[in-house]
Amino acid sequence: MQTNDLTIELRGDQQQIALITLNRPSKRNALNDGLVLAIRDVFQGMPHSVRAAVIHGHGEHFCAGLDLSELSERDAAAGLHHSRMWHHALDQVERGPVPVVAALHGAVVGGGLELASACHLRVADTSSFFALPEGSRGIFVGGGGSVRIPRLIGTARMADMMFTGRVLNAEEGERAGLAQYLVPQGTALDKALELATRIASNAPLTNYALMQALPRIADQTADHGFFTEALISAIVQDAPEAKARVREFLEGRGPKVKKQ
Ligand code: 1HE
């Protein structure tokens, strides 16, 4: 990695959790090119011990989106390549080596929301707010937001956020589907680490199927989706770990599903 604006720390007895921190608080963790490339590099070079990751922002905000100071001199061709660079980097998050939980607080805006939407789960604390100020800045999303955000909240809600500059508070964001968990202020990171630890204890092939097969099945026709589901479920259940976990339950040793 070429920047100190992104850090990675390994947690857990077997270093199975990667804690990735956007560390540019003086600029509200705005994503300049160096930081976007560092995100790409950290996911491409994820240590083999890691089974799940958490990403969060240092300071008062998760992320203020694209670093607007780098935008001014770009022509159309440069803009195209820049957007494709973001796509490549965030694809390493979404289709990368491990499930990623985003711990959100403060501003989750523009490219920051695009980054959060590339993660597999989002935990928001009550200080979080969500916006797509691209609409009012005369630009458009370029980090995959027009593909990923409608899948979370629908096209109409995303269009509203961009047409009108609507800012969703934490409760509204959770209700709309931008976050799967809403927690008290200051506790998003702890909750995200707890979830990542739980996710890391799953059979690796189950997590692989959730990351790689589930979103692709959602993009397929029902007929193709049923067939892909049959293939992936056959592969996952064939793993020795799956057989051992089912046997444990049948012998009364495996965990039961408990009402929360
Ligand atoms: C920035 C950026 C940035 C802050 N690029 N420098 N994103 C936006 O349009 C959001 C712009 N930012 C804001 O609305 C606010 O900064 C926040 C609500 C996020 C935070 O407010 P606050 O009062 O805590 O901080 P601040 O005083 O506004 O900003 C502190 C510093 O960070 C200040 O720099 P300074 O040198 O004057 O101290 C700001 O200029 C700087 N800063 N946000 C550059 N975004 C792949 S396409 C994606 C397209 C987009 O993401 S567009 C949306 C961009």
From TrEMBL:
GO biological process: fatty acid beta-oxidation
GO MF, any single term: enoyl-CoA hydratase activity
Documented EC number(s): 4.2.1.17
InterPro entries: ClpP/crotonase-like_dom_sf, Enoyl-CoA_hyd/isom_CS, Enoyl-CoA_hydra/iso, Enoyl-CoA_hydra_C
Alphabetical UniProt keywords: Lyase
Superkingdom of the source species: Bacteria
UniProt xrefs under PROSITE patterns: ENOYL_COA_HYDRATASE
Enzyme class: lyase
Family classification: Belongs to the enoyl-CoA hydratase/isomerase family.
Protein name: Enoyl-CoA hydratase
Native source species: Hydrogenophaga borbori
